[in-house]
Amino acid sequence: MTSIGVVLAAGAGTRYGEPKILAHEGLWLRLAVRALREGGCDEVLVVVGAAAPEMPAGAQCVVNDEWRTGMGSSVRVGLQACATTDADKAVLHLVDTPDIGGDVVGRVIEASLSTGLARATFDGRPGHPVVLARHWWPQAAGAADGDRGARSFLADNPDVVLVDCSDLATGRDHDHRSDGYEMPGVGTRTHADEFDRG
User: Could you tell me how far CA 79 lies from the centroid of its own chain?
Assistant: First the structure.
């Protein structure tokens, strides 16, 4: 079975001060793509909108012209792009959760084998990544609306397997530039910290 990763990264990042796809000179985008690839995704799509930078190696972009309407449109665009491939599963991930690594992605993919539907949780809080088998894509896309993304579809679905990943990451998303942020295996960093740009 093959998995395709989808990084949801189309927003303007109004509270953050710039599109998060550009955060830290593109580091968060590179980390998201790397997590999906290392976690078992054969391909990675990045849904872009407010900004469309050059893609990291191993990823290609998909444009969401309706990005202003919220994350729901990015979920739809991403899953529609997935449907043009031969992938069996889609792995939805956020660009602004930089401490999620391939270990989290791999754990959630493995947990999805039973029902084809799984999502990471962190200290009891639902988060990303979310894994959906191909037969779930039409329902998830149909339910994606506004800034809720696929939240209502997941909340109402008894087949969702919740996968505790608190031992691997915080899963915290970042809305403000003043926040510290975490990286896989590194711990909290600040905007002024030096980091690997490769």
Answer: 12
Q: What is the DSSP code (8-state) at residue 56?
A: P
Contact indicator for 12, 70 with CB cutoff of 8 Å: no
Question: For 89, which DSSP code?
Answer: E
| Helix then strand then coil, % of the chain, to nearest 5 | 30, 25, 45
Lowest-confidence pick of 76-80, 137-141, 152-156: 152-156
Of 89, 169, 158, whose CA–CA distance to 128 is shortest?
Answer: 169
Judge contact between 28 and 96, C-beta under 8 A.
yes
| 36 three-class SS | helix
Look at residue 92 and give its three-state secondary structure: strand
In contact, 168 and 101? CB cutoff 8 Å:
yes
The CA distance from 192 to 20, in Å, is: 16
Is residue 33 within 8 Å of 42, Cβ to Cβ?
Answer: no
Nearest Cα to 166, choosing from 84, 99, 110, 109? 99
Run of H or E residues at 106? helix 102-111
What average pLDDT does this structure show over 105-109?
A: 98
Strands 181-183 and 187-189 come out as antiparallel
- Sort 20 into a burial class: Cβ within 10 Å, 0-12 / 13-18 / 19+: buried
Strand partners, 161: 118
CB-count burial class (<10 Å; 0-12, 13-18, 19+) for 162 = middle
Q: What is the pTM of this model?
A: 0.90
